[in-house]
Amino acid sequence: MYSTRRNWLLALDLLLTLLVTSMQADTSEPDKIVLSGSNVTLQISKGPPGNATHVTWLYTTNQKIVEHNPNIPPKYFNSVFKDRVKLDLQSNALHIYHVQKSDSGTYYFRILKNGEEMQWEIPLKVLDPVLTPIINIEKTEELDGNCYLRLSCVVNQSADYLWYKDSVPFPKELQRNTLEATVTPQNQSKSYSCQVSNLLSSKNDTVYFTPPCTLARSTGVKWMANWLAVMMPTILGLLLISDELF
Ligand SMILES: *[C@@H]1O[C@H](CO)[C@@H](O)[C@H](O)[C@H]1NC(C)=O
Ligand SMILES: *[C@@H]1O[C@H](CO)[C@@H](O)[C@H](O)[C@H]1NC(C)=O
Ligand SMILES: *[C@@H]1O[C@H](CO)[C@@H](O)[C@H](O)[C@H]1NC(C)=O
Questions:
Q1: Which of 6, 35, 102, 111 is the most buried (most CB within 10 A)?
Q2: Residue 90: what pLDDT?
C-alpha cells in the first residue's frame, strides 16, 4: 500500500519536472560579437508575439535590467546597466550604449503571453580591439651574401599573428610570433610586417630592410617621437637642476 502510493508520488513528481522543463525551454540566439565601446541592440530574431505583456530583460538569470508592464513607463533596475540601456517600446529591443568587456555573457528576454512565460537566450561577446604590436629585431646575421634574420612580434594580448613581406603574407606554417628567415639577394623584400588580429580588429608594425642585412624601424618621425618620449624626463630633469643651481 505504502509502496504504491510512493510510486504514484514519484510518477507525479517526474511528470511535474517534465512539464516545468518544457515550459522553461530556452530559445537561444546565435552569439553576437562586438567591439568594446560600441553600441549594441539586443533583439530576438524571430517570434516575439505582438501582444506580449510584461516584458523583462535580464543579464544572466538573476540580474534584471528593465521590466515593462502595459500602460506604465518601463522600470530600469539598479544595475551596472542603469544609465546605459534603453528599451525600445515598439520592438522590445534593448539598446546598450558603450559596451564593455564585462558586459559579455548571456542576456535573457522574457515575456508573458496568454499567461504563459516565454524566454529567449541572447549571448553577447565583447572584444577589446587588439593593441598595436611592436616588432623586435632580435638578430640579423650576414653570411655569404645572404641575410639571416629573426624578428619577434610583441603584443601584450592573445591574438593571431600574420607576417608579411612587402604586403604579401608568408606561408601559413611560418605564422607564429617569431619569424626566422634567410633572405637571399633574389628574394629580399623592402619591408617586413607583423599583423595581429582578433575576430574584429587588427593592427600591424613594419620594419624596413636595406641590403645586404640591415633592418630599421619605420620612419624618422616615429623614431623622433620615441626618442623624445625617452629623453623628455631627462631634459626636464636637467632644466630643474639648472633652475636650482642658478
Ligand atoms: C553610441 O550612441 C551614442 C548616443 O546615441 C552616440 O553619441 C555615440 O556616438 C554612439 N557610439 C557609437 C560608437 O556609435
Ligand atoms: C597595416 O596597417 C595599415 C593601417 O594601420 C594598413 O593600411 C596596412 O594595409 C596594414 N598592413 C598590413 C601588411 O597588414
Ligand atoms: C629565399 O630563398 C632561399 C633560397 O632559395 C630560401 O632558403 C629562403 O627560405 C627564402 N627566403 C624567403 C624569406 O622567402
A1: 111
A2: 87
